[in-house]
Amino acid sequence: MTTIYDFTAQDLMGNTVDFTQFRGKVLLIVNTASECGFTPQFAGLQALHERYHTEGLVVIGFPCNQFGKQEPNDGSAIGEFCQRNYGVEFLMMQKIDVNGEHAHPIYTWLKEQQGGLLTDGIKWNFTKFLIARDGKVIDRYTPMTKPESLTADIKTALA
Q1: In this structure, are residues 88 and 53 in contact, taking their beta carbons and an 8 Å threshold?
Q2: How many Cβ atoms are within 10 Å of 80's Cβ, its own excluded?
Q3: What does the angle CA 130 – CA 131 – CA 137 come to, to the nearest 5 degrees?
Q4: Least-confidence region, from 73-77, 96-100, 108-112
Q5: How far apart are CA 124 and CA 120, in angstroms?
Q6: Which of 4, 5, 14, 85 is the most exposed place for a label (fewest CB within 10 A)?
Q7: Measured distance CA(79)–CA(86) in Å, rounded
Q8: Which residues form the catalytic set?
Q9: What is the pTM of this model?
Q10: For 73-95, what is each residue's pLDDT tens digit?
């Protein structure tokens, strides 16, 4: 059976990140955008990272430009924006597609594991997936779900 540990992706610097390094961790994977109405959620994601990283939470952002062209920047500009405006220290990946024929394999798998309402496709920026320590998807959250409201689910997953 496939788990999140079967995948790799590129970080903002172009380095390959092998997800096997996260074995035994709880992951929060989010498709992000710098020019979205939900962009302030970076602050909440950073707060979760700061609070739970030492307990085993890994927050991973995947920038995406598929929704309203709200992530027009390249990797270095995305990293600079996130750091300057929200103090982001959690892992940010290279910009990807989350839907369509060029969707990153991680997102194809995530959508297969935890479908959405009406359609399995990602509907907008800041859709969130919580992954258990065994590499399986626990839940999917809408863009309107604020990061701080995930605290109880994260604590349960970490326990």
Answers
A1: no
A2: 13
A3: 95
A4: 73-77
A5: 12
A6: 14
A7: 10
A8: 36
A9: 0.93
A10: 888 889 888 888 888 999 999 99
